[in-house]
Amino acid sequence: MTLAQRLIQGTAILTAAGIEDPRREARLLLAYAAGLDMAGLLRCLTANVPVPLYEHMLERRAAREPIAFILGRQPFWNFEVAVTNDTLIPRADSETLIEAAVIAFPKRKVARVLDMGTGTGCLLIAALVEFPNATGVGMDRSADATALAWYNAETVGVAERAAFFCGDWGTALNGKFDLVLSNPPYIETAVIPGLMPEVALYEPASALDGGADGLVAYRAIMAGLPGLLAPGGVAILELGQGQAPAVAELATGAGLVPGPPHRDLGGVERALPIRRGGKKTFGEVWRGR
């Protein structure tokens, strides 16, 4: 079979499996199996190139395993990270946190960054790319995740400014940070079985399950956040849809000052910036950056 015929075959298999964009995904899998980039694949469509991995990759995708796990990589911000089933797959929605960080620090004056629940390390790595004078710490309860995050930091070229540790929501840290980032588990426990199979069956439950109300991790984060933020520091937390008011209330209860949420490309309030409060008013805390 030519590569063009294999592409048609793969598209049909993924269509029958209910994959949303079957031709694009069949093309990605075929290019990977053939050891070609996309331009090379297009040039070689009439060739009969051996692709022994292709059918197995199609089987995995037809079983609704995420394509990122099959390919072992995922784009994020302006780089690419390795992914495994030890972590969540980075999503474009999470890039909203980095956009919010750049807005919060337009002069790029950030010295120390903390990423709680770092996973692949994508948020910390993106922050270190955007704030070239900063150093950062990534923490995760999973040793496999921290090892993967370290590998990704090395690949992107920021490992000399990063450190990764096992820990739980910053409880093992005593230092102060200018920027704190976190994409915690925020999906309600009862909702998880009804999610799309790629998420419910393959991504780690510990990175998804936010407890009965989806807010368990936020409560743990708020307990330690006042002691982790440096003067003038900002924490930016990822939110599930509709969670902004509840998380803002938790921040206020911890003596912190939540700012206006940032919306992702789908219009969802996805990133909540938070500052230390003290005796200043909301306007005084948020003015001037």
Put the structure in a nutshell:
The protein is elongated and about 65 Å long. It is α/β, with parallel strands linked by helices and 289 residues long. The relative contact order is 0.11.
Describe this protein's structure:
With 289 residues, the chain is α/β, with parallel strands linked by helices. It has two domains: 3-63; 84-286, Vaccinia Virus protein VP39 (Rossmann fold), CATH 3.40.50. The protein has twelve helices and ten strands. The protein has helices spanning 3-16, 22-34, 38-43, 54-62, 67-71, 95-104, 122-130, 143-156, 197-200, 216-228, 244-253, 282-286; strands at 73-76, 79-82, 112-116, 135-140, 162-166, 177-182, 229-238, 256-258, 262-263, 269-276. Strands 3, 4, 5, 6, 7, 8, 9 and 10 form an eight-stranded mixed beta sheet that branches. The chain has a two-stranded antiparallel ribbon with strand order 1-2. Strand 3 (112-116), helix 7 and strand 4 (135-140) form a beta-alpha-beta unit. The relative contact order is 0.11. The model has no long low-confidence stretch (mean pLDDT 93).
Q: Strands, helices and their partners?
A:
Elements: H1 3-16, H2 22-34, H3 38-43, H4 54-62, H5 67-71, E1 73-76, E2 79-82, H6 95-104, E3 112-116, H7 122-130, E4 135-140, H8 143-156, E5 162-166, E6 177-182, H9 197-200, H10 216-228, E7 229-238, H11 244-253, E8 256-258, E9 262-263, E10 269-276, H12 282-286
Helix pairs in contact: 1-2, 1-4, 6-7
